[in-house]
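**User:**
My hope is that you can spare some time for a protein that puzzles me. This is the protein in question:
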Amino acid sequence: MFPPSRPGSFRPTRSASPGSAIPPSPHANLRQYDPDSAAATRAAWTLRANETLGRYRSIGDPEQFATEVTSQVRKATGDLHLEVAYIRRPLLANPVAFSPTDEARFRASQLAANCGFSDVRFLPHNIGYLKLDMFPEVNVCGDTAITTMKTLSRADALIIDLRDNSGGSPDMVMFLAGWLFPHPAFFYNPRENDASHMWTRSPMAGSSLADKPIWVLTSPRTYSAAEHFSYNLKMLHRATLLGETTGGATDVGVFHRIDDHFGIGIRESRVRNPYPAPDWAVNGVSPNVRVPAADALETAEKLAAQQVARR
């Protein structure tokens, strides 16, 4: 995952020294890691041409430079996942892996937050409600997820509230999605290189949600893994998205260091997106029913009650 300045996305931080030197363009990274070699060549040619013409010489702010180069490589390739970014803190050439102590603290923090399952209850008309504020690690929170989904399986309709979901584990995305289908469903993930890992584990033992109507609540605070979840449910026509367009997190690739303060994020998956609509990078996932995020739960509850009454 990219070094983030907000959960689930990657944004440069303003330089403490705007006049610092601008690094060379990330030609080598593009050529080495971009799965589309033709697009990488176009991007590298564009950057070299701008360098030759001196178009970067007047940019004294590192953040502005990163934004400009990002715009250029996206225009040259049509790939909105590409992002050059400036990071205030020094980027280590060989990042230190998580220590056992770090891992223990990470597990404890997820468990202390009840794994992001911040509200689980039944609304009138036997409508299940789940407010999920992150997608935790399955190896930490699998038991909590199973207990929650088995409880909600008694519902006649389900509302999943992701309006404050900051993202998290794609494994948990697949795990929870598995409860919503009667058979394996393909969940496209631009981070994943193996298409065989993009199928849900459906059907899940103990689930009776596969034929129940589902509403997913979204907002501009819905990021990353929550967008992965929302996007695929929308593409598969399995849920009705209700609220506002999601945040459009771009951290769907691998971050490569360029120098001490600059890096580039590149989507490295070679699996083709089978759906007609682009994924959530930059532009986010638009809802099926657009209402202010603050009104989304009330609206979804009314729609769900109407549908339950018709069943």
Notes: Helices lie at 27-33, 37-52, 62-77, 100-112, 138-152, 170-177, 225-235, 296-310. The chain has a mean pLDDT of 88.
